[in-house]
Automatic annotation (TrEMBL):
<dbReference type="InterPro" id="IPR020841">
    <property type="entry name" value="PKS_Beta-ketoAc_synthase_dom"/>
</dbReference>
<dbReference type="Pfam" id="PF02801">
    <property type="entry name" value="Ketoacyl-synt_C"/>
</dbReference>
<dbReference type="InterPro" id="IPR001227">
    <property type="entry name" value="Ac_transferase_dom_sf"/>
</dbReference>
<dbReference type="GO" id="GO:0004312">
    <property type="term" value="F:fatty acid synthase activity"/>
</dbReference>
<dbReference type="GO" id="GO:0044550">
    <property type="term" value="P:secondary metabolite biosynthetic process"/>
</dbReference>
<keyword id="KW-0597">Phosphoprotein</keyword>
<dbReference type="InterPro" id="IPR014031">
    <property type="entry name" value="Ketoacyl_synth_C"/>
</dbReference>
<protein>
    <submittedName>
        <fullName>Polyketide synthase</fullName>
    </submittedName>
</protein>
<dbReference type="InterPro" id="IPR016039">
    <property type="entry name" value="Thiolase-like"/>
</dbReference>
<feature type="domain" description="Ketosynthase family 3 (KS3)">
    <location>
        <begin position="1"/>
        <end position="120"/>
    </location>
</feature>
<dbReference type="GO" id="GO:0006633">
    <property type="term" value="P:fatty acid biosynthetic process"/>
</dbReference>
<dbReference type="InterPro" id="IPR032821">
    <property type="entry name" value="PKS_assoc"/>
</dbReference>
<keyword id="KW-0596">Phosphopantetheine</keyword>
<dbReference type="Pfam" id="PF16197">
    <property type="entry name" value="KAsynt_C_assoc"/>
</dbReference>
<dbReference type="InterPro" id="IPR050091">
    <property type="entry name" value="PKS_NRPS_Biosynth_Enz"/>
</dbReference>
Amino acid sequence: EGHGTGTQAGDTREMAGIARSFSQHRTASEKLLVGSVKANIGHLEACAGLASLIKCVYILETGMIPPTPSVRRLNPKISWEEWHLEVPTTQTPWPTGGLRRISTQGFGYGGANAHLVLDDAAHYLEVRNLRGHHYTLTKSQNRRLLATESHGDSPKKHVPRLFLLQANDRGGLGRVRASLAQHLDQLQILNKSWPPGSRDGGVYLQNLAYTLASRRSHLKWQTYAVASTPGELIEVLKRNDDAWETPEVRRAASPPRLGFIFSGHGAQWK
């Protein structure tokens, strides 16, 4: 991921620097893929490096390299073939298996330069026998993974989790809390213990928190509960309105409008 401002002098020198560092390790059949998010969203000035970093994280997670738009004719001053460099013009799957590694760099107007090297979380954790939450999609899997799934460990018993509650009116939040508390009460009475492998409700609570946040319609009124165990969640849900501590918020009636300002290098924008 290059700084890539699109200038004749800047791009040529940047690609020459990349070539000196990486071209000797590449071949004509295994070129180094290069791009810049500025071709998609323009120059974000002080935030340009962060935009590139976010793009790199998405590439590592999904294993898909986005195209660089509007590429019609490559800069003839850059020795693309000799330096074994290539600009993706279509969405490109990550070309190799195993560890994914990507670098990004940014050059500040005041002389502050940075170069970051990033590895994908799944393989980084796997090699070091570590656990951690991540969303890396690997070729051998058909869905995003949490580290607890990819490394074979069940969720810990008493990890605090956030349970999102939603309703169309403020009063409905209380009804949702009561309904969920009743459901959990019934599970405890009927089963006397949680389903096999749930580790005292740990797996069940993880699935419940995910479902409430990601598999429910987003309604106007929202609040949340935080709990580590089924009993703790039931206790929190049964609190009356006066004792309910978390805020109850109403979403905007219409989505916010987003505007982009492309101001070049900034001297003319004040």
